[in-house]
Predict the 3D structure of the following.
Amino acid sequence: MRRLIENRFGLLALVLVALGALYGVAYVSRPAPVAQARPQAVKAPVESVTAVCPAPSGSRVSVVTPADPERPQTPGSATLSAIKAPGKNGGGKDDVIDRVGLLWQRDVAAGGGPLVVDADGSMAAGLESAQTARETSGTQRGLAGVRCVEPGAESWFVGPGPAAAEMTLYLANPDSAPANVSFMVYSGEGPVLSERGNGVVVKPGEHRVIRLRDLAPSPLIMALQVSTSSGRVAAAVKAVLGEGRGVDWLPVAAAPATRVVVPGVPGTAGQRELYVAAPGERDTVVRIRAVLEDGSYALKNKETLEVPAGSASSLDLSTGIGGQPAALVLESDVPIVAGLKITGTGARQDVAFTAGAASVDLGSVVADGRAQGKQTSWLVLSAPFAAATVEVRLLPAKGEAPAPIEVTLPAARTKELRLTPPKGSKGGFSVLVRPKPGSGPVYGGRVLDEAAKDGQMVTAQPLAMARIWALVPPTVDSPGVVLP
């Protein structure tokens, strides 16, 4: 019996040795693993665009789609029409635009509501539209321009409050689903909740005009958050500062972030007032750096700005950047939003606004550039972090586009470029800005001013990322798609 047990253990040992040898041979001779390429985002051309010109009455509407040899050409068109509910006729004749590479403009008569630009195919990728008015009646005197905005789930605006100016919010819903919209105002004293309610439902094809004084009458400065819990809405805000103090639209500001770049500050004299809001639950000290023509600096005695949690603060930077083309780099330990008021010179003042914006890595298009009579257009370009080179091309309404201009930006520098209209353009043109391969991040703005007898008129627009290409997230085979 004892010998039988010993034989069984001996046999087990031989089996284990044999298995070990086989595993060793398999390990040594196994094929090398196939290298898995990390999936990359795919750059795909934009195939459709919808934008809303919020209040074009008495304005010139400009629409352009730049030609791009890298983009496959497909049939397409853009339609400019009054906003209307799905399946209903809005009245009037729609404008159809199908000329890639040429600026299209139309002067809109007084009266009427928002206009919707719908584009597909070759007219969609890169399409840009804007409305610009020269206002001289009553308390509204000045140039007032705004980029026609895409509907979305959230928009931020930073500027004077309803106690300092007549602030009006324009909402439009060009989609086929209702939008449930809510508002939050952050003032110098903290968040402001309206007793009249802070939300509305905007039905498909509907638009609303809301006086912000009815929501929050007391703030002198503010940050406004417009968001939707369902659906999408196009939001825009107009500021009328009163007799002899100017009028313009607030551009949509970049979403809260710990580093914000406010670009496109022109090199003209006048007041420069910075607005910063910290919508979170923590106080912060915002560090401020100006990117000027000769370098990047912390402004003397204005290096920082304290912003309490859930509130907005302002800082006069006139003696720091007044008279110099500039961008501002703001850094904070908590997410912030920011904007800047630009005041013109003269007996009767006009105002313009710029705001935190993204770098234009995929290029940027400005629909409305002008240089006729006493009106002049400028580009203010900045490279806050690394040297950059951009190509600037002007797109006229008629005739051939001139050769592009190459602009080199040393690191931590700002340049201002006066835009001369192409021959045969009659003063109207669009602008295409494209960073060259290997360029550092570029930020910028277009400034339009007019030398009037009673004071300078001015409007500004920070450059926005062009709707030319979309980065489609990578897809991989993964059981996580179907398994909880």
Q: What stands out?
A: DSSP finds three helices and 35 strands in the chain. Helices lie at 2-29, 212-215, 318-321. Residues 393 and 403 are 7 Å apart (CA to CA).
